[in-house]
Amino acid sequence: MAAALFLASAGIGKILLLERNDRVGRKLSATGNGQGNVTNERMGADHYFSDDLEKVGEILRAFGKDDLLRFLTESGGYFTADEEGRVYPASRQAASVTDILRFALSARGVAVKTGEQVKRAEKRKGLFCVETDRGDYRARYLLIAAGGKASPHFGSDGNGYALAQKFGHTVTPLSPALVQLKTEREPIKGLKGIRCDCGVTLTRGGVPLYACRGDVIFTDYGVSGNAIFKTSSRAAEGDTLSLDFLPECGAGELSALLRHKARLCGALASEDLLRCIVNSAAARAVMRSLGIGADIKCGALAGRADEIAARVKDFRLQIAGSMGFDNAQVTKGGIPLAETDGFLMSKREEGLFFAGEILNVDGECGGYNLQWAFSSGVRCARRIAELYHEDR
Predict the structure, then answer these.
(1) Model confidence over 247-291: pLDDT tens digits?
(2) Three-state DSSP class for 21?
(3) 310 alpha carbon, distance to own chain's centre
(4) Are the C-beta atoms of residues 242 and 203 closer than 8 Å to each other?
């Protein structure tokens, strides 16, 4: 949609947008938990994963956060950032972002055909021949922005990769990202539905790989929440999650508090030792993981204060996998950037461009993936416009 609008603003009249769904922007309308987190104030290539982060940085600088917000504001929206730098429409409705783009497409005279799935694309006699389940089209330039494999119920089932492969492109191994993680279940028994503000550290073979802080939501299969989504892009089955239930407090300070409380409230049940310190369900899980039964009194735990504090600060869960592409927000992997030039045009087929999630670029949770979608789309459009006018 952004590419089409930039092409139209460059004076190109014959632009066709093909959409397999019954309306454009269905996935955009669901982003940010339906609130439309379009970008982030803390934008930069260091928030992305790719085979060429230098190229990612160049594209983000060419059309960055400020450019995107100017474009969306000129299209009729108003946007604000929260304390974490996440930028949303003031309406807090992702569908409203889709709407202003849809209105703009109509106003600019861009032809939009919905309910048409591309089945085949090839180049013959200098033109791209695109076959859908409803008709055939010819074009001088072709931009494939078909998404990845994440959330296939929105139409992104990976068919774009097959189209690219027909032109000689490769696809790196694909995996779900920004997704809930499955973990061992015994340690989280009784925690389903509990939300905690945790420090989260991902380790592999005892080596820390990533750390962040944010919401962790416990489920019957494992963990969810924004801290888990951030971590999921780096996680693999067999890795370990370390949860810090009290990130504001050091282990020594917590241990001293627990010793004092054990002596002060010796007759209370063991789970009450952590009362008003961590979530009650989390407290029971911590005690259970240490083999401390409900029948044990606080007075007997003064000598184990260091051990309990350490477990509060380092509650470990082994990762058993993820909830898969059906639940993922983005796809990790895709067409290598090395197979495109600096304007994301194919090195295999002149005039063929790629934008968005179909490429081997994925970002952290917080608006980074939508920024990449817009930035890469505009990058392609600007180059297509240059080539179009040069040809004329």
Answers:
(1) 999 999 999 999 999 999 999 999 899 999 999 999 999 999 999
(2) coil
(3) 32
(4) yes
